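Figure caption, in words: inputs first, then the predicted bound structure.
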Amino acid sequence: MSLEIRQITEDEVEAAEFITAYSFNSTERRDLTKAVERSKQFYPAGWSLASFEDGEMTAFVRTIPFAARINGHGLSYGAVGPVVSLPQHRRKGHVGAILRRALENMRDNGQVWSGLHTPHPTLYQRYGWEIASLSRTFKFPPKEIQLKAEPKERGYIRMLKADDWAQADRIYRVHSAKRNGPLHRGEIWWREAIFGSGFAPDPSDVALWEDASGEPRGYAVYVQATRADADMPRFWVREIVALTTDAYLNLLLYILRHDLPSEIAINAAPDDPFYSLVDDARHVKVEEHYDLMNRIVDVEAALKLRPPANPELEVDFTMEITDRTAPWNEATWRVRQAGGEVQVEKTNQQADLSLSSTTLAPLYNGFLSASAAAFAGRVRAESERSLVEADAFFSTLYPPFCADGF
Ligand SMILES: CC(C)(COP(=O)(O)OP(=O)(O)OC[C@H]1O[C@@H](n2cnc3c(N)ncnc32)[C@H](O)[C@@H]1OP(=O)(O)O)[C@@H](O)C(=O)NCCC(=O)NCCS
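Bound structure (coenzyme A present):
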């Protein structure tokens, strides 16, 4: 029996889309025409990898090249999804083999880090991905909610269409500039994943808020589902992006005035102040679950490229990284920060800290501090000083959050 891992060809798109549609039990599996068309239009074959057993495609993985922001810069990021295999070929190691190759490809392509969403965290932990952000949802009956603050002006709400995507993008870019985790969205992503249905059952509505002088200052993306779906709220706010307090309050009030749904769900970043704004918080349910799993693909490059949150700090520590599935990361690395510059090099010095690259992923984006990881037994530290230095080095300007599904 032969196993081959390679990119798919145009002729093989249908087989890959079948594995995807079947695995996620999508209705498209009965007629793949649209899925194939979408795939050919939006996803170059070079982003795909599949396994072939004796010539038959058995599993398929796509890595979309994005940049994800951290501390003021976007760093090249491989967004992995879908990951699927045919049931008759599962538990044979085919997906594992593809993920290993995907890591090599990402490194060669300069994608220094990677992320994915999954219901199977233990699978990906084997290959170095680790939980690195939380998703928070506020759920409430809109009629019960009063806000403690009022906007100074009412401004205007204008509905955007997909062709207006650049208006939302201008706001998104300003809002994302220093945040931690937002992806650089291109036109196709805006049209397909934001204005289109993306992972929601229905297309999204996008409402733009302009101040009295006509300046756009924020927008909300929300879905009013027409079909009942146990996994999806009927009125679901995917994101509120506001550059000013007035934009935030007006967009919230606009959402709250949708008073027919019995419940509205708002997806929010961990630092979203909604909870503190609600008059009677008993009416608000807060749900939290793990969101992105991240992976540091190329430790040396990822550390060198990561902009410091506090450039004025001086930091010097060594850390030994173990990495079974990306062995190029295995070394003791000396990390220095001085004068705003970061230097990273291999060293023969004794390591201050010892950890796996799996543990490094949530440290890297500030989801977990080095001290907390050591307390949890996931980092071995030779000294308190090295933990303090690592905490300072890995600090971020914002908590991690990415509103995009992929
Ligand atoms: C999840 C899925 C992709 C796994 O594919 P697979 O072909 O069985 O994976 P592999 O055989 O290559 O397994 C690789 C490793 O992960 C482990 N693994 C596989 N499925 C797992 C799961 N659901 N949970 C935890 N570990 C899992 C395997 O035991 C194996 O580990 P080992 O090498 O130590 O034995 C496949 O079951 C599938 O397509 N499911 C439906 C769609 C889906 O859930 N996709 C993932 C969305 S993120």
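The pocket of coenzyme A is lined by residues 23, 59, 83-85, 90-96, 118, 120, 122-123, 126 (CB under 6 Å).
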